[in-house]
Design brief:
alpha/beta
């Protein structure tokens, strides 16, 4: 059975969140295609992971036999997130843009799972795992747009997930999500709707396709 690690980070619940709506479409398609599979779910808004402390950081560079009680406890917490990453056959991440970057809760999760010598660096224990990132944003930040230079979500996550962790990264980008809520953007509502519909379709297709590909390997 294949395992999907699903991580959401939007502060908005359910359909009020563009990223959650799209990750939900992916997950539903995955579960319909592979109902006997396993889903590990992390809602980083409802249950934030701890930020890295000095003990959690230093424990990585010390022999476990020499850990202080504080280091041992802190690293045990990190180990839970690391093992979930390593156990996953596919990863799904909801990453809305907040103030041009990712939510701090998602950054904290990444800081916990990036461990040089295990998940990152020469070893990359989850190397090659497919990860689908739903990078929603209220405006438009693609090439040629006025705010292209403010796009720090895909650039950052590409560097961490692909370059540091060795994951196989694909982005789904629903944009202009603020258009229905801001009168000044009313003319952009059709573009928002087209972007939303494409993102939902792409997510469902990707979820179904990955389940088809991975389920036989994990059986």
């Amino acid at each position: 059975m294949a395992t999907l690690l699903h991580v959401d980070s939007s502060v908005l619940p359910g359909s009020a969140s563009a990223s959650r709506s799209v990750t939900d479409a992916f997950r539903k398609a995955w579960e319909e295609q592979h109902p006997e599979g396993t889903v590990i779910y992390r809602d980083l808004s409802a249950n934030p992971v701890p930020h890295i402390t000095a003990d959690a950081h230093s424990a990585v560079f010390a022999d476990p036999s020499e850990h202080t009680p504080e280091q041992a406890a802190a690293f045990a917490g990190r180990l839970e997130f690391i093992e979930e990453l390593e156990r996953a056959d596919a990863i799904l991440i909801g990453a809305p843009m907040y103030n041009f970057s990712i939510p701090s809760t998602l950054k904290a999760w990444l800081d916990n799972v990036v461990v040089v010598g295990r998940t990152a660096g020469e070893t990359q224990s989850a190397k090659g795992t497919p990860v689908t990132v739903v990078a929603s944003r209220g405006g438009a930040y693609g090439p040629g747009t006025p705010r292209e230079g403010y796009e720090y979500v895909q650039n950052y996550l590409g560097a961490v997930l692909k370059d540091m962790l060795g994951l196989d990264v694909e982005f789904i980008v629903p944009e202009l999500t603020m258009a229905p809520h801001m009168p000044a953007l009313a003319d952009l509502v059709p573009l928002f709707e087209a972007s939303r519909d494409k993102a939902l379709e792409d997510a469902a297709t990707k979820g179904r396709t990955l389940a088809e590909q991975l389920a036989p390997k994990a059986a």
